[in-house]
Design goal:
Elements (H helix, E strand, L loop, with lengths): L1 H20 L6 H4 L10 E4 L5 E7 L11 E4 L6 E3 L8 E7 L7 E13 L2 E12 L10 E4 L8 H4 L3 E6 L5 E2 L14 E5 L9 E2 L3 E5 L5 E4 L6 E3 L2 E5 L5 E3 L1 E4 L13 E9 L3 E10 L3 E3 L3 E8 L10 E9 L5 E11 L9 E3 L7 E7 L2 E4 L3 H7 L4 E3 L3 E4 L6 E8 L4 E11 L8 E6 L2 E5 L4 H13 L1 H4 L3 H22 L1 H16 L1 H10 L7 H5 L16 E4 L2 E4 L16 H5 L3 E3 L7 E6 L6 H10 L4 E7 L17 E4 L2 E12 L3 E10 L4 E12 L4 H4 L3 H9 L6 E6 L8 H4 L3 H6 L7 H17 L6 H24 L5 H9 L2 H8 L10 H7 L1 H7 L31 E7 L5 E8 L6 H10 L4 E4 L3 H6 L13 E4 L2 E8 L7 E9 L5 E9 L11 H13 L6 E5 L5 H13 L9 H11 L7 H14 L1 H7 ...
Parallel strand pairs: 1-7, 8-13, 16-23, 24-31, 37-43, 38-42, 38-43, 45-51, 46-50, 46-51
Antiparallel strand pairs: 2-5, 2-12, 3-6, 4-5, 6-7, 9-10, 9-11, 11-13, 14-18, 15-16, 17-21, 19-20, 19-22, 22-23, 25-29, 26-27, 26-30, 28-29, 30-31, 32-33, 34-35, 36-37, 39-40, 40-41, 41-42, 44-45, 47-48, 48-49, 49-50
Length: about 1100
């Protein structure tokens, strides 16, 4: 026995001797542990630094004088290879502590393979850096305001290495460039001495921090027109517009304040030119303004060169570009036999950017500064309360004006009262009895009548002899009058006969107009709800259930092309869901489609050429934050080459300012004829909003009919066609029916009717000037009222409320048919964007970590804290409307191979809350694991981790349980998490009671912070994706110009592939959103809430398709 022990000791000492004499001596930490394969990870203390240098082996590294193989790994983005190193055996890397919540980082230097005597090892060379997250830095920070780094002992050595991070997060180890400096940037100087071979980790010798003078505040692309009383004036239209405030410095340091935030507060303009500051918020890039406003932009520079001048303030008035702009103009008919329901008034605090200067009614004007004196000295024509001044006249007749004074101009609100009386007073008339006597008669009395008869008798003998002559004179005069009148009014006579002709030629239009003009525009909803406008038949549609990720859901309706019309053989047109809409009575052919994909532009232009499309009507949208298009136009510049096509624009003109352009192109194919294409470019559109959609369709039509060849017109939009093109352009019921978009809504109907009416009158098909004048005035008032109603909405809910107003059964059906089309990849693309998933799937051992092989995991935003671990999940990160950070991890429940990986993820990502959406029985049924203990004080052990259940919350119910757990590692620090489990959502069907999910949503809100929260289900896409989409929609309801559920779904699926695969899950999301904003919807229109749930019940209970 002693001999055997002695032999082992001799062998060990021989190995140590080899190590001391060879490359292993470069790593003392490794040398101290004889059992090589148990040495990793090598542990280093990073102290309180956010950047350190670590040493890794190179390809020339040798272990114990043997031929080993070392394969360096690809480093993550927070690691940079140091180019200044000259050692051949090792490589130095700079490691940045990117996630400040992480206690450590693990770096994989590469794979080392050793096969020598007793050693047969293949392992990852891992380095673990333990970070100290306290606020005190071990190295002092030296501020500098020069163009180069200050000179000191660290900065003068030739062995220095400088590492810094650019403003966009890129690590560099090049000589420091002052133009890349930014506020709070830290520049690290390391001394890299190649002769000192035993160092395994290096710390900064010195840290520098650039400082600068306070910045200016400017708006991108905006030059103020003037400055009034230290307020910069920016003129704008009343419509919504986005502005982008930025902090600017000199060209020497252009990015110095690029990531800094600006405080913005709204300023109230009051009488005597005073300014009162209101609410305050922090913005980073965008301010969206509907209407006018005064805003104070403030930046506090806590670390600037001049300590006495660190605050930048700029007040900007976004106001009208001319005086006396009318924001409201209403006409009210006053009947003396009816009580006037409306009492004209001027709000004293109506606008923050203007105060009420004066009020006028006809010629009488009162100034607010003298209001008290006026009301005591005069009658009660005006009344004043705490918030308004009223016109106190029972039957007003005239113009009532509110004059609001802004810092520059005056804006007006006008109410025009038209007094209408049923009793028309008779005019005075005079009868000549003789040359010396006149009788003025208003309402003749009996006495006056007797006198009149008497005088007429007395004059009888005088008038009879002259009667024949007088008759001849009157006859001649009448003939002359008729001749002159006929000559001057021949157009009128011609028009009379022309009207008779039009009535015979277009009897249907005249019958329609005579009927329609008798309706109030507000009553036309009943008009279009008649059976002839709802000419759809419903039939039961077989609901198809399928299982994915352990959940049974309802398959989306197939994308059903219309029964009418012709489908295309062109593959691209099929992909764009193109549909040819044509009727025998049409002079031209219409094609309705989606917008072309960026990567398909060459095919798209070839398709236009081959299909002989002459005209395109294109609708795109502007991004709310940037103010630019959300999509790149497929006409990139004046001249372009697309495959074998040369496309050249030869004309561009503006149809409607800031809304519609006309573009004309020549398309030339090699050795073939040149064709002409006209594009009507409608941009800056906002669907579901009259404020942004109220374009003049007739103007577009006029431009189209002036084009030489309009035989084929393509209509497409950036989003699904139902939101834009079909409704405004095609009113005919059969056409709407043929594209499966449902019956038309009231606002679209009135918009179309207005355009048609305008067309009929301009073409003289109709001629009823009085009727048209009344209709036109009523329509303008109708649109203005809608706009006023929109402006009165809560700004954060306006897009959503507009959506609820437009939604109907047809539109909902159309939306649901797009679900399978959103973020759908082919297999070749999937292998590129999910490369890590397929790499693990192809590894026999690692593939056991995958629950479902038909659910790939995207590389982007994946859980990636260590190459040895795998969690099938993705993290969704965004800021809420309240500027709170939200991090949601959508992932699968672990199996027995990944339960340790799950705990590692919880610790590394500092997860604060876990939401389990599957009950314990179904977890086991799907061969997954309950990785947390069920009973209080029960302890589970996974590797180095100790997990204990601490308590159950009193809020727990039979449906939702809430518990607290503690996780401890080697450091014995307790990581506390809240565990919320929804028990009543079966995997066999989607939960029907949406109020339970809303209750869950509110419980989660109370139990999360800015640390990540996990949404977990079997496949990580169904229930998890549904809950994530609910959070994302509610959190971002005011972040975009419009509410489009397909847009939000696309965001989630770009992060988590295949999320929300079922119709029933998607409808559950909308149900929870509607329920969450129930009070706001009912306040806007009580019918809209119930209307949605009727639509939901039809779709989920029966299924639906149009015949």
């Amino acid at each position: 026995m002693q001999k055997r022990v002695g032999s082992i000791l001799i062998f060990i000492f021989i190995q140590i001797g080899f190590q001391l004499s060879l490359d292993t001596i470069l790593f003392p930490t490794l040398l101290n542990n004889i059992l090589f394969n148990k040495s990793f990870p090598l542990n280093y203390d990073g102290r309180n630094n956010e950047i350190v240098l670590i040493k890794c082996p190179s390809e020339k590294f040798k272990y114990a004088n043997i031929e080993n193989l070392f394969i360096p790994s690809i480093m993550p983005s927070n690691v940079i290879k140091i180019t200044a190193n000259k050692l051949e055996k090792v490589v130095w890397y700079g490691v940045f502590h990117n996630n400040k919540s992480e206690l450590y980082s693990i770096i994989n230097c590469g794979i080392i393979k050793i096969n020598y005597l007793h050693l047969n090892i293949t392992t990852n060379w891992l380095v673990k850096i333990n970070w100290d997250i306290s606020n005190n830095k071990t190295t002092s920070v030296i501020p500098f305001d020069t163009t180069t780094l200050p000179t000191n002992a660290c900065n003068t050595t030739i062995n220095k290495t400088i590492i810094y991070k650019t403003y966009n997060g890129i690590l560099k180890d090049k000589p420091y460039n002052i133009s890349e400096s930014y506020k709070n940037q830290l520049v690290y100087v390391f001394i890299l001495n190649d002769n000192n071979t035993i160092d395994e980790i290096l710390f900064p010798c010195q840290i520098y921090k650039p400082v600068y003078y306070k910045p200016n505040i400017t708006l991108i692309g905006i030059i103020p027109s003037k400055v009034v009383n230290n307020i910069f004036i920016v003129t704008k239209e009343y419509e919504n517009k986005a502005y982008f405030p930025i902090l600017t410095s000199t060209s020497e340091k252009p990015y110095f304040y690029i990531n800094e935030k600006i405080n913005v507060s709204e300023v109230e303009y009051t009488m005597n030119d005073d300014y009162k500051e209101n609410s305050n918020k922090i913005v980073n890039d965008t301010i969206n303004l509907h209407g006018y406003g005064i805003f104070k932009f403030t930046y506090y520079c806590d670390d600037c060169i001049n300590k006495n001048d660190t605050v930048t303030i700029k007040k900007i008035f976004f106001g009208p570009n001319k005086d006396n702009i009318i924001l409201k103009n209403e006409s009210i008919v006053v009947n003396k036999d009816k009580n006037l329901k409306f009492q004209a008034n001027c709000g004293i605090n109506t606008y923050t950017f203007a105060y009420l200067e004066k009020v006028s009614f006809n010629s009488k004007t009162i100034y607010m500064k003298n209001i008290s004196q006026y009301l005591t000295l005069n009658d009660n024509e005006f009344l004043l309360d705490s918030s308004k001044i009223y016109l106190n006249i029972s039957y007003p007749n005239g113009i009532f004006k509110c004059h609001y004074k802004t810092p520059t101009y005056t804006i007006l609100e006008i109410d025009e009262f038209l007094l209408k009386s049923d009793i028309i007073p008779k005019k005075n008339f005079t009868i000549e009895v003789n040359k010396t006597q006149e009788i003025n008669v208003n309402k003749p009395s009996k006495n006056k009548t007797k006198i009149l008869k008497l005088n007429l008798k007395k004059q009888k003998f005088k008038t009879i002899p002259f009667f024949p002559d007088l008759l001849i004179v009157i006859l001649i005069f009448t003939i002359l009058f008729i001749g002159i009148y006929t000559y001057n009014k021949k157009t009128l006579i011609f028009q009379f006969f022309y009207n008779i002709k039009m009535k015979r030629k277009h009897p249907n239009i005249h019958i329609w107009w005579n009927r329609y003009k008798t309706f109030s525009i507000y009553d036309s909803e009943d008009y279009i709800s008649e059976e002839e406008y709802l000419n759809y038949e419903y039939q039961n549609f077989e609901k198809i259930k399928f299982n994915i990720g352990g959940e049974t859901v309802q398959r989306p309706f197939p994308i059903k092309l219309p029964l009418k019309g012709t489908n295309f053989k062109n593959k691209l047109l099929k992909n764009l869901m193109a549909k040819k809409v044509t009727e025998k009575s049409f002079d031209r052919e219409y094609i309705v489609s989606y917008y072309p994909f960026n990567e398909k532009y060459n095919e798209f232009w070839n398709m236009l050429y081959d299909e002989n499309i002459n005209v395109i009507i294109s609708v795109t949208y502007n991004n709310k934050k940037t103010g630019k298009r959300n999509v790149i136009p497929y006409w990139l510049s004046k001249k372009n080459i697309y495959g074998n096509l040369k496309v050249e624009r030869f004309n561009k003109k503006e149809i409607i300012s800031q809304k519609i352009d006309l573009l004309q192109f020549n398309i030339t194919k090699l050795n073939e004829i040149t064709k002409t294409l006209t594009i009507i470019d409608i941009f800056n559109w906002e669907e579901y909003s009259i404020l942004k959609c109220d374009i003049d369709i007739y103007e577009i039509y006029n431009e189209v009919i002036q084009i030489d060849d309009t035989s084929k017109i393509l209509l497409h939009s950036q989003l699904a066609p139902y939101t834009t093109i079909v409704e405004p352009q095609l009113i005919i019921n059969d056409i709407i029916k043929s594209y499966n978009i449902g019956y038309i809504d009231i606002i679209s109907f009135n918009s179309i009717t207005n355009s048609l009416t305008k067309y009929f009158f301009n073409k003289n098909i109709l001629n009823d000037n009085d009727g048209y004048t009344i209709y036109k005035k009523n329509y303008e008032q109708y649109i203005e009222n809608i706009k006023l109603k929109e402006t009165s909405m809560n700004a954060s809910l306006r897009p959503f409320l507009n959506f609820t107003n437009y939604l109907n059964l047809g539109k909902m059906n159309y939306i649901l048919r797009q679900l399978e089309n959103i973020c759908n990849y082919d297999i070749n693309t999937l292998k590129k964007v999910c490369s890590r998933f397929y790499e693990i799937q192809n590894n026999l051992q690692l593939s056991l970590k995958i629950n479902y092989k038909n659910i790939p995991c995207l590389d982007g935003n994946c859980i990636n804290f260590n190459s040895n671990y795998f969690v099938h999940g993705n993290i969704l990160e965004y800021c809420t409307k309240n500027l709170k950070k939200r991090k949601i991890i959508m992932c699968q429940i672990p199996n027995k191979e990944t339960k340790l990986d799950m705990i590692n993820m919880i610790i590394n990502y500092k997860v604060s809350t876990i939401v389990m959406l599957v009950n314990n029985e179904e977890i086991i049924l799907n061969n997954l694991v309950n990785y947390l203990p069920n009973n209080i004080n029960t302890v589970y052990f996974y590797g180095i981790y100790r997990i204990q259940k601490l308590n159950d919350s009193k809020e727990s119910t039979s449906e939702i349980s809430i518990s607290t757990y503690s996780i401890q590692g080697n450091d014995e620090k307790s990581h506390i998490i809240t565990y919320i489990q929804l028990k009543c959502w079966s995997n066999n069907e989607v939960i029907k009671n949406h109020n339970i999910i809303l209750k869950l949503y509110n419980i989660i809100l109370r139990n999360i912070n800015e640390n990540p929260v996990i949404f977990q289900c079997c496949g990580g896409i169904g229930k998890s994706g549904t809950l994530a989409l609910i959070f994302y929609i509610i959190d971002n309801l005011n972040q975009f110009n419009s509410f489009d559920p397909l847009f939000y779904l696309n965001i989630i699926r770009q992060i988590r592939y295949l999320s929300i695969p079922g119709i029933d899950q998607f409808m559950l999301v909308l149900s929870v959103v509607y329920e969450n904003f129930k009070n706001d919807i009912k306040k806007y229109n009580p019918e809209l809430y119930d209307k949605f749930f009727k639509i939901r019940d039809i779709i989920l209970n029966n299924g639906l398709q149009y015949l």
